[in-house]
Amino acid sequence: FYDMGSGGTEVAVAKFYPMADKGKNVSAFEVLGKGWDEGLGGYTFDLAMTEILADKFNRQLSGGDDVRGNSKSMAKLREHARKVKEILSANAEIPVNIEGLHNDIDFRSHVTRAEFEQATRDIVPRVSQPILDALQMAGMNASQIHEIELIGGSVRIPAVKAAIEKQLKELGWGSSGGGFWNRDVTLGQHLNGDEACALGTAFRAANLSTAFRVRKVGLTEKSVYPINATLVASEGGAGASKGLLGGLFGSKDKGAKAQEEAAWSKTTSLFKAATPVDGRHGAKKTLALTRDHDLFIKVFYDVGEGSRFPAGVDQVLGTYNVTGVAGFAKEMADKGLDAPKISLTFRLQPSGVMVLERAEATVEEVTMPKESPAEDEEAAADASDKAADAEAGAAGAEAKTDGAADEAGKEGQESGQENGESADGKDDVEAAKAAEEEEKAAEAAKASEKKEKKKKKKKQPSGPKTTVHRRSLTVEATNLFMEYPPMTEAQLKASKAKLDAIDAADAARQRREAAQNQLEEYILSVRHLVNDEMAEKVAKVSTEEQRDEVISTANAAEEWLYEEGFGAEAGVLDGKRKELADLAKPLLERALEHEGRPKAVKKARTYIEEKTQLMDTWSATKPQVTEDERKDVLKKLGDLEEWLNGVEEKQSKLEVHEKPAFHSSEIGPRLQSIRSLVSRLNKRPKPAPEKPVEPEKPAEEASEAKDAASGDSDEATTAGEAEAEGAAGEARETEGEDGAEEAKSGDGAPADEL
């Protein structure tokens, strides 16, 4: 797989094969080798094309000006360079047109593929190096490669594709050797080069996760960098190392000094470069050493001279404190046993994270067996065997005696026969003797069998007995890859200061961007109002010199904003906006006030006249409003009229292009206090009429008077309601007039936003 993206290039040699998974065969692949160039990608070619366009544009400039000195112009060039590079992948030539690239100068030119390839002649040779690195790690040659797949957007560049194919052909890829290679071979592009890596990553994550059910695909990775471990005695420990499995760490002489023992330190290799890492279980390595004190272990990438380890990346994968060794060693020493043997199991997980997953200490105790009652039983068995042998000997002697008697009997029988004795007596004697001999032979065989069984049951002498004492050790991970230890007070303060600085920088950027947008918007609005929308109104209240000064200041601010002021601080941008506003705002305000101020004055005088007449009417219709209150209203109206006369007199003495004596916006607040007072007095209800006192009447007349009073009360209530309704209507009418006056007084107010 050859992958060239925008920022880097990666090459991997992979082998595909079937793998058994839960009784089924699934696809699996193993990464055999890797190669990469983190600084070679599509962006590298973009920069080369940018240089071509910059050189072409500089030839159009005069006075030795260089477009490279303007960051905004170069940003435009880089954007067009990327588009030109992509189009030249399918075309031999392309025209380039960029309007207003620098100093309002348009860029017009043509670029050919030959020019691009000439400019990248020093870059293209780097394309093949990752291929060589990957094959070297895999221990293979190009003739062993069956398929080549290109992914990534930058492999579409013809020069890149040609360089890849040329290098592979030179290494023997696709050479005719019979068998598999009896066909035409080409560079494959069967995958979506822009999405293949992202989709593959998601699919691999789903395979590892238990939350998704997808087709299983096996994977065996390769570790890129070697991983080492350094083991040192924990602080305060003074034990000596007495050995390591396979002599890994060597041993210390018994007479070594305590300070040398305390400074004991060894570094060993855990995983070499190109170690296979299984996609399900990873890779495992176990270290064994004899130690009677706790350990501190640091696991890190072994970065030697000339290594391509990424700059700025921490080499340490993890640090561990292994405790519990000293306590266990003391327990064993009290029993007279040796120092424990420590087993450390490291695992390189499929994700590349290193963990110390197990730490254990063991001590073997060898004991010799003691004498037991079994030996006494064995001696008794021997005595029994001897007795059996003696019994068998006695039985044999009896057999001999019986034999002699038999011989004597035989002779007697023979003489008896000669003497004419009976033959029946002879037969009875012979039968009895045969039965007795058979019984004795059976007893002798039984005794011999018993002796053999006892010999078999005799115990063989037992050897030494071995007992293994085990103790799981405590592992404290103090700094793991992608996991940070607790911060110290100084680190916490430094981190907070850094975060505050980042927040301040973001806030400053936001203020700067807002100020830049406001200045740009203000420049456009001032130019539009002065030249177009309000040109006639502005011309009435300004001189030509004033208008020219505003326009020239706006143009200068715009030019400064896009050139020297690009990226300026918010305070500087606000200062430029204020500088323009100090000239434009008075001019635009005078244009608005020229029509709005007379209208506002006229409405204010109308209000004064109406309310003066209203106070005369209230003297007869609103007895609830006292004379002093009416005089207070009239006084306020008089003060307002006097103020209007004064400011109008001052304004009449000024030219229209000069600063006005007053603004229409000053009239509203003065009217508002009078409106509030008049409205409050208008809502005051009339006092209830006093009832006359009548003399007492007889009971009968009193009853009639009560009925009559009830009827009068109903009529009075009706009349009172009618009168209250009339007063409310009058109040609403007055409020309506006040509201209308307020609405009218708002006309012609200046636009403070400008």
Write the layout of secondary structure elements.
Blueprint (H helix, E strand, L loop, with lengths): L1 E3 L4 E13 L2 E14 L4 H17 L12 H18 L4 E10 L2 E8 H7 L9 H10 L11 E2 L6 H13 L25 H13 L9 E5 L4 E7 L9 E2 L13 H5 L2 E7 L4 E3 L4 E8 L4 E7 L14 E8 L1 H10 L6 E8 L5 E14 L6 H45 L4 H35 L7 E8 L1 E7 L8 H45 L1 H6 L3 H19 L7 H52 L5 H26 L14 H16 L16 H47 L9
Parallel strand pairs: 1-6, 3-7
Antiparallel strand pairs: 1-2, 2-3, 4-5, 7-11, 8-10, 8-13, 9-12, 12-15, 13-14, 14-18, 15-16, 16-17
Helix pairs in contact: 1-2, 9-10, 11-13, 11-14, 13-14, 14-15, 15-16, 16-17
What does this structure look like?
Strand 4 and strand 5 form a beta hairpin. The protein is elongated, with a radius of gyration of 58 Å. Helix 15 (627-652) runs antiparallel to helix 16. With 754 residues, the chain is of the alpha+beta class. The chain contains 17 helices and 18 strands. The strands form 4 sheets. The chain has a 6-stranded mixed β-sheet with strand order 6-1-2-3-7-11. Helices cover 51% and strands 18% of the residues. The longest helix has 52 residues, at 570-621. Residues 176-183, 236-255, 397-427 and 712-754 have low confidence and may be disordered. The protein has helices at 42-58, 71-88, 113-119, 129-138, 158-170, 196-208, 258-262, 325-334, 374-418, 423-457, 489-533, 535-540, 544-562, 570-621, 627-652, 667-682, 699-745; strands spanning 2-4, 9-21, 24-37, 93-102, 105-112, 150-151, 218-222, 227-233, 243-244, 265-271, 276-278, 283-290, 295-301, 316-323, 341-348, 354-367, 465-472, 474-480.
